Amino acid sequence: MSARPHIPVMLDAVLDAAAVADGDTVVDATFGHGGYSEAFLRAAKCDVVGLDRDPTVQPRASELAKAYPGRFRLIETPFSDMDRHDIPPVDVVVFDIGVSSMQIDRAERGFSFQKDGPLDMRMSRSGPTARDAVMQLDEAALSTLFKVYGEERHARRAARRIVEARMDGDIATTGQLADIIETAIGRTGKIHPATRVFQALRIFINDELGELYRGLCAAEALLEPGGRLVIVTFHSLEDRIAKQFLRDRAGDVEGGSRYAPAVTREGPAPSFILPRRSVVKPSRSEEAVNPRARSAKLRMAVRTDASAHDCEAESWHPPRTELPTLERLA
Ligand SMILES: C[S@@+](CC[C@H](N)C(=O)[O-])C[C@H]1O[C@@H](n2cnc3c(N)ncnc32)[C@H](O)[C@@H]1O
With contact defined as beta carbons under 8 Å apart, do 301 and 279 qualify? Predict the structure, then answer.
């Protein structure tokens, strides 16, 4: 089934924050439909390296490589590995987190509760699927996932109903799971009752929050002094990671105010400065034409000449509570 092309979110604000110039090397860490990559290639005589872990973006990447000979290439990789590829020092790294409209719209990818398809949800072709999680995790683990990654109030009820339902047979499709969740928690507001459970499974299966944290570390390692980091996020869990990473790297400590300014904490020198403290949000007119933009937030930072922090040495703690890991799935 054909999918609508992805409409790039906050494109003008991204171009403004990235400020690409002739001769720059740009990493578009989330290539998708290449909306940002193409805009960078048009804006300046720069080179763009697109990254994506979804192999289905390849035909679109080939179009760009043909239209901009020698200036564009795609690497199929998780962006957390961007510093392990042969990429020259970089002037701009841009992240546009989450899934693309093409991924959501294609029933066979299994992201959508509105179109029945296999319960997959993987952005790449490898690793466990959402079906594996739903069939194998115990009730407590499912409940924690729905609560933490989905911020679902009825997490326990949803988890219990899944465990009951799977005793009667395989839960193999998005439609089956959506019906089970609807039976468990009912339909009240405007949003589909399965929205949060689907979000939680998607974040889990793609290790989206771990990827984001490690991707920011990899970008820190690749960026030249003066290089710009631009991050567009779509929900609070992602934005919190981006915000905390940037505050940490800019040397901020909690508790600063205009009466008692934040002091730089002891530790490595700041590897980023934050020219703008506040996030940029889409205009009302953009939200009206592209509903996906509604929850977007853009943050940007500029790399200093300090060494990158040792991310391996820092422990990545998922939020609040003990979460299951993908390694638990067969
Ligand atoms: C929101 S779309 C990007 C859309 C793009 N900015 C555009 O204008 O067309 C996100 C893309 O990033 C990819 N992606 C998400 N997480 C990733 C990761 N950790 N590593 C590599 N690619 C990732 C997804 O497969 C998807 O194609």
Answer: no
